[in-house]
Amino acid sequence: MIKNRSPYDLDGVPHLKVAIPLGLQHILAMFVSNITPIIIVAGVLGISPTEKTLLIQGSMLVAGINTLIQAYTIGPVGARLPIVVGTSFAFVPIAISIGTKYGFEGVLGAALIGGLFEAFLGLIIKKIRKYFPPLVTGVVVLSIGLSLLPVGIQNFAGGIGSKDFGSLENLFIGFVVLVTVIFFKQFTKGTTSTGAIFIGTIVGFLVAMFMGKVNLSTIGEASIFSLPKPFMYGFTFHLDAIMAMVLMFIVSAVETVGDMSGVTMGGAGRETTDRELSGGILADGLGSALATLFSVLPTTSFSQNTGIIAMTGIMSRFVVGTGAMFLIIGAFIPKIGAIFTVVPPSVIGGSLVMVFAMISISGIQLITKEPLKGRNAVILAVSLGLGYGLGNVPDALVAFPESIRLIFGGSGIVVSGSIAVLLNIILPQDEKEEVVLTKSQKA
């Protein structure tokens, strides 16, 4: 029997010489985003550098395990899609708020309950899927892409907080990567086309090294072997913290629905199935519960990797699984993780700008599956207008309680998704839509 070697097929198992660079480009796109949330929270809560290192190891291990579960499943858990999982930025503000009041144990306790709640949503997703038509999931995917574009530009310019932010050197490196990605994607075929992001990153890294922008001492200082440490902290449970965290997990579930829709639409030109949605959200919730055992913040699907799939069309679960193995190995060999940390932000940003824009395009493809007029136009306009607006001007909610501001003022995705779901429920169908729905129901 001839083995399917196509990287474009869900069950394709390409040769390692193809799978490794394609898997690495996924890890390069998500590595910093995966470890940064725990670094931020640990810094605010005064966690020691030694414990912080162990938390970073835990973040890598959990991200790798949860990515494998999404790709290859355990029973009903997992989407059986090339979903890359990592620590979610969305939980950082609320984790800091809870941690300041109840300590890191309070954060972990609330996250454990929240993860189990999201897993419950996965069990009933078939009953509530009617509230997530292509228009709604498209709004979420588009909002994800739009909200991430500033992050791409920030990296492109050198990374927020860097002394040379916006310098000509950083912008030059970013443009070198972007032009390289475009060239190999559009003007070559085969492995060089599918691996355009990886090639662009390598070229940008070499240019950055030549310009003196790479500090390799971090690799030398990292230890050769170290075991991740579970149960570093205990759990405490507080009702207000749990309620706030549960709301964030509902948002996380909506984001996961959006990411899965982005993967299947961008990579396969179809909507997600009930089985994929259920398994994906189950894995998202249970994976976050697993993360708390390693004292790690909740995990979720990573939108930048959805963008890579939408851009390259590479749907092979084996490719994503190969990348996940690097995360798991890196959790035990800090030197491997250190290699990824020395890549300058401008190198990463050069490819992320295009990747994040591709996420937005996947959202537009979902939205335009139906005519944009009447009811659909109203839902899109209001959800994007308020979502993107409040996401950029969070101070507009200054009169609301802190918990509300944390949830709805920190992310346009939350507002856009919530409003799209609400309006889809309460606004009556246009006459033509009702006729179409009636005919499809009879069929």
Structure overview:
This protein is mostly helical. It folds into two domains: 16-142 and 215-344, no CATH class; 370-435, no CATH class. Helices cover 71% and strands 1% of the residues. It has 20 helices and two strands. The protein has helices at residues 16-44, 49-72, 92-102, 104-123, 125-128, 134-156, 168-187, 191-194, 196-210, 217-221, 239-268, 274-293, 303-312, 317-332, 334-341, 345-367, 375-392, 402-408, 412-426, 431-442, and strands at 85-87, 299-301. A two-stranded antiparallel ribbon has the order 1-2. The model has no long low-confidence stretch (mean pLDDT 87).
Query: H/E element string?
Result: HHEHHHHHHHHHHEHHHHHHHH
State the strand order across the main sheet: 1-2
- Number-wise, the strands total 2
The dominant shape is globular
Task: Estimate nothing, just give the exact number of structural domains.
Answer: 2
Share of helix, binned = over 70%
Largest sheet: 2 strands, antiparallel
Helix segment count? 20
Mean pLDDT: 87
InterPro entries: NCS2, UacT-like, Xan_ur_permease
Membrane topology: Multi-pass membrane protein
GO molecular function: xanthine transmembrane transporter activity
Protein name: Nucleobase:cation symporter-2, NCS2 family
